[in-house]
């Protein structure tokens, strides 16, 4: 049986191994094939010819080359504990305890993986019917792929939301030794200024839309304390008209989130994590509360939130965010 299996693997290589490799979608399948190839390379008692060993080494090399990172996971915590629509938000949020999550969604695009030397590799976002739009172009210009992350499920304190959730971005990037990840929080400029009623999902959400000129809510984060506290991030002071694209926005409010270190990251076990306690660090929702805090709001209550996301008072990215990390 082992001899027949070995011969079949060799035949696959000679007939065009890459076609076979490209059909291996599951990481488990790839791992099993690697184990089989290793067995025949080092343990096969029937293998006698050097050319067979060379073919098996070729199989190993091609399998390794074809592997890719296919998913990046996201999560929401408060401190070290997960946040959901069930029960209270753990710990202290904006100087309040016993708060409840009401809504938490945000868009991401232009995802890159960071190598130890600082160079970056694109994570190409797949086209999907509900949560993602792949990179492309329209009459206004070219844009990167964009995805909507949704952590509410319309239950308990999140009544009024949507039942479906999405906690990951699907796409592809080559396997490598990466020490960080980077992305932009929001919608690409040439997709941002559209009409949600005619846009494709996930840009057809009325809950994540402001107006044609100002575009989408890049993030919608709401919790209930003494009152409902809302933080909506999006572009402001945009100029343009309905006959053409928006030309510019005085406050883009499009933060670049960069998370990197000196150790190799493992995106199969780690998640990009938003810490809601760190987002609201320095704000005070006790008493009358923050209430409504929109992008660019320069009040004392809102400014710490903008700063914690890595934005300055002009809506420019500072690369100094403290809200996201890898866990």
Structural write-up:
By secondary structure, the chain is α+β, with helices and mostly antiparallel strands. The chain folds into two domains: 2-66, no CATH class; 72-326, no CATH class. 21% of the residues lie in helices and 32% in strands. The chain contains six helices and 23 strands. The chain has helices spanning 2-22, 27-42, 50-66, 189-192, 276-279, 303-308; strands at residues 68-78, 81-82, 92-93, 96-97, 100-115, 120-122, 124-125, 132-133, 136-137, 142-143, 146-150, 168-174, 178-185, 209-211, 215-216, 219-224, 228-233, 236-239, 248-251, 256-260, 271-275, 292-294, 324-326. Helix 2 packs antiparallel against helix 3 (50-66). The two termini are 45 Å apart. The relative contact order is 0.14.
Set out the fold topology.
Layout lengths: L1 H21 L4 H16 L7 H17 L1 E11 L2 E2 L9 E2 L2 E2 L2 E16 L4 E3 L1 E2 L6 E2 L2 E2 L4 E2 L2 E5 L17 E7 L3 E8 L3 H4 L16 E3 L3 E2 L2 E6 L3 E6 L2 E4 L8 E4 L4 E5 L10 E5 H4 L12 E3 L8 H6 L15 E3 L1
Parallel strand pairs: 1-21, 17-22
Antiparallel strand pairs: 1-2, 1-12, 3-4, 5-6, 5-11, 5-13, 5-16, 7-12, 8-11, 9-10, 13-20, 14-15, 16-17, 18-19, 21-23
């Amino acid at each position: 049986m082992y001899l027949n299996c070995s011969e079949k693997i060799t035949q696959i290589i000679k007939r065009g191994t890459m076609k076979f490799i490209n059909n291996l979608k599951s990481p488990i399948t790839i791992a099993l094939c690697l184990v089989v190839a290793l067995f025949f390379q080092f343990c096969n008692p029937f293998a006698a010819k050097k050319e067979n060993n060379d073919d098996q080494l070729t199989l190993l090399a091609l399998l390794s080359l074809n592997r890719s990172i296919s998913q990046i996971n996201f999560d929401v915590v408060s401190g070290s504990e997960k946040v959901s629509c069930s029960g209270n938000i753990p710990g202290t949020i904006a100087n309040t305890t016993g708060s409840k999550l009401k809504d938490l969604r945000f868009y991401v695009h232009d995802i890159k993986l960071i190598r130890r030397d600082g160079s970056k590799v694109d994570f190409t976002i797949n086209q999907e019917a509900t949560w993602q739009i792949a990179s492309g172009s329209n009459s206004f210009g070219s844009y990167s792929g964009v995805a909507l992350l949704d952590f509410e499920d319309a239950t308990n304190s999140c009544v009024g939301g949507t039942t479906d959730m999405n906690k990951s971005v699907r796409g592809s990037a080559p396997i490598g030794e990466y020490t960080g990840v980077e992305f932009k929080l929001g919608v690409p400029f040439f997709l941002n200024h559209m009409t949600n009623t005619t846009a494709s999902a996930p840009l057809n959400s009325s809950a994540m839309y402001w107006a044609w000129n100002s575009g989408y809510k890049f993030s919608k984060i709401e919790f209930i304390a003494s009152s409902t506290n809302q933080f909506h991030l999006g572009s402001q002071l945009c100029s343009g008209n309905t006959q053409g694209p928006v030309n510019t926005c005085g406050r883009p409010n499009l933060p670049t989130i960069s998370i990197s270190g000196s150790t190799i990251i493992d995106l199969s076990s780690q998640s990009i994590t938003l810490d809601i306690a760190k987002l609201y660090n320095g704000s005070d929702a006790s008493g009358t509360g923050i209430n409504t805090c929109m992008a660019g709001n320069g009040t004392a209550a809102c400014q710490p939130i903008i700063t914690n996301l890595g934005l300055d008072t002009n809506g420019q990215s500072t690369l100094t965010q403290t809200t996201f990390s890898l866990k």
